Amino acid sequence: xxxxxxxxxxxxxxxxxxxxxxxxxxxxxxxxxxxxxxxxxxxxxxxxxxxxxxxxxxxxxxxxxxxxxxxxxxxxxxxxxxxxxxxxxxxxxxxxxxxxxxxxxxxxxxxxxxxxxxxxxxxxxxxxxxxxxxxxxxxxxxxx
Length: 144
Description:
This protein is mainly beta. The chain has a single domain (2-142), classed as Immunoglobulin-like, CATH 2.60.40.3700. It has one helix and ten strands. It has one helix at residues 2-10; strands spanning 20-24, 28-33, 39-42, 46-54, 77-84, 89-96, 103-108, 112-119, 122-129, 137-142. The protein has a four-stranded antiparallel β-sheet with strand order 6-5-8-9, with no helix packed on it. A hairpin with a 3-residue loop joins strand 1 and strand 2. The protein is globular and about 45 Å long.
């Protein structure tokens, strides 16, 4: 499922299929094609969290849509760190947002951590969690 999610997230906005809806939940991805029945494909051992920092505009989101969510900062370089509450550095790398303004993070399940995003226009630090009831989409990340 990693490859499918990563490919859908990386598909340029202008090249996305109009007939496909793919929504990431904590334990599965829900697919609907051309208004047909919904298909659920379970996620294995990891949690997928998609984040979209912003400067001026954002939208409310809880479960990330791989096909329709669009953030403000498409194709922008970021530095991301995720540090678990136990102090373990889970992620520390340079990434570039996809054309949809999001960057996806594969994280261990059932952790509490701190996410820091640094961009040339500012930074944001926020707590995150990867439990069964947690969001898969973070859009409330103003860069200051």
